[in-house]
């Protein structure tokens, strides 16, 4: 069977079910409300695996699932050289969120990366340690700031409530996803004008692990049903 991993709960799961439903493929959870079991109707040889969105990149890379739906941000964050490990088959048009850098509203002279670079330099001179940026997106933020030539920062890990770290004095800036912008506003933060690190959306990915032997015909048929082009895997 071709194993299709989809998020096990919430809006990502519901929107994923709708996306496949619009292509005449029914995905559904089976069993009790709390049981993570699922079924596929309308596609031959495809099995549903319900997983945490955050674990789907790793499962794809390891070849434990053939196809997976998750945020494009999570694939880029969790997998080194992501496009050598998975192939992007289709952006799905939901789960939009931007990974951004933000600083306190009251930092009147910091609106861009250039300003942040200057500020971080001064900060280190004054405080004797590097400006702290709280995030759970370590790989993406490190690559972005290095590429953009910003110096004198350090990352501090924050796995949730990241916007609160500044008020708690554990960071001076944050890098997190935003969709409505409400969490940033409520915590008196502003986005740096040129610091949109990644525009994420839910995406259908295929594993590039050597697991496709014997599944080629079923996958071609499934791709036709979904209306997606199949790259070399
Ligand atoms: N407002 C939002 N808040 C959080 N995630 C969002 C938002 N909008 C879109 N997303 C996307 O949803 C995905 C995260 O989903 P989710 O929070 O279900 O994952 P997870 O934290 O790994 O799940 P779990 O709680 O099961 O571990 C990311 O790709 C993220 O970009
Ligand atoms: O722009 P907004 O619409 O306000 O959404 C952005 C917020 O949503 C996410 O948090 P989540 O609710 O997943 O909780 P978390 O703090 O545990 O990450 C994200 O980390 C932001 O904090």
UniProtKB/TrEMBL annotation:
Keywords for the protein's UniProt record, in alphabetical order: Amino-acid biosynthesis, Glycosyltransferase, Histidine biosynthesis, Transferase
**Catalytic activities:** 1-(5-phospho-beta-D-ribosyl)-ATP + diphosphate = 5-phospho-alpha-D-ribose 1-diphosphate + ATP
Q: What is its EC number?
A: 2.4.2.17
The source organism is Thioclava dalianensis
Task: Tell me which SUPFAM superfamilies the record gives.
Answer: Periplasmic binding protein-like II
Q: What does this protein do?
A: Catalyzes the condensation of ATP and 5-phosphoribose 1-diphosphate to form N'-(5'-phosphoribosyl)-ATP (PR-ATP). Has a crucial role in the pathway because the rate of histidine biosynthesis seems to be controlled primarily by regulation of HisG enzymatic activity.
Q: In which pathway does it act?
A: Amino-acid biosynthesis; L-histidine biosynthesis; L-histidine from 5-phospho-alpha-D-ribose 1-diphosphate: step 1/9
Question: Under the cellular component aspect of Gene Ontology, which terms does the record hold?
Answer: cytoplasm
Q: Which domain of life is it from?
A: Bacteria
Enzyme superclass (EC): transferase
Q: Which PANTHER family match?
A: ATP PHOSPHORIBOSYLTRANSFERASE (PTHR21403:SF8), ATP PHOSPHORIBOSYLTRANSFERASE ATP-PRTASE (PTHR21403)
GO MF: ATP phosphoribosyltransferase activity
Q: Which biological processes are named by the entry's GO terms? A: L-histidine biosynthetic process
Q: Which residues are in the ATP phosphoribosyltransferase catalytic domain?
A: 53-211
Q: Which Pfam families match?
A: HisG
Protein name in the entry: ATP phosphoribosyltransferase
């Amino acid at each position: 069977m071709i194993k299709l991993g989809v998020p096990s709960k919430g809006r990502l799961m519901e929107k994923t079910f709708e996306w496949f439903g619009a292509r005449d493929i029914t995905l559904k959870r089976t069993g009790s409300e709390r049981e993570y079991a699922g079924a596929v109707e309308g596609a031959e040889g495809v099995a549903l695996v319900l997983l945490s969105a955050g674990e789907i990149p790793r499962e794809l890379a390891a070849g434990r699932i053939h196809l997976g739906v998750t945020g494009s941000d999570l694939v880029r964050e969790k997998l080194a050289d992501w496009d050598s490990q998975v192939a992007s088959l289709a952006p799905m048009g939901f789960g939009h969120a931007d990974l951004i850098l933000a600083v306190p509203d009251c930092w009147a002279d910091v609106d861009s990366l250039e300003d942040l670079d200057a500020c971080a330099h001064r900060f280190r001179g004054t405080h004797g340690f590097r400006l702290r940026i709280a995030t759970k997106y370590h790989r993406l933020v490190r690559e972005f700031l290095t590429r953009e030539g910003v110096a004198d920062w350090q990352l501090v890990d924050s796995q949730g409530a990241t916007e609160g770290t500044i008020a708690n004095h554990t960071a001076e800036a944050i890098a997190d996803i935003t969709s409505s912008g409400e969490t940033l506003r409520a915590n008196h933060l502003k986005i740096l004008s040129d610091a949109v690190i990644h525009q994420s959306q839910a995406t259908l990915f295929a594993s590039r692990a050597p697991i496709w032997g014997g599944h080629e015909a079923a996958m071609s048929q499934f791709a036709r049903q979904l209306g997606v082009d199949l790259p070399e895997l």
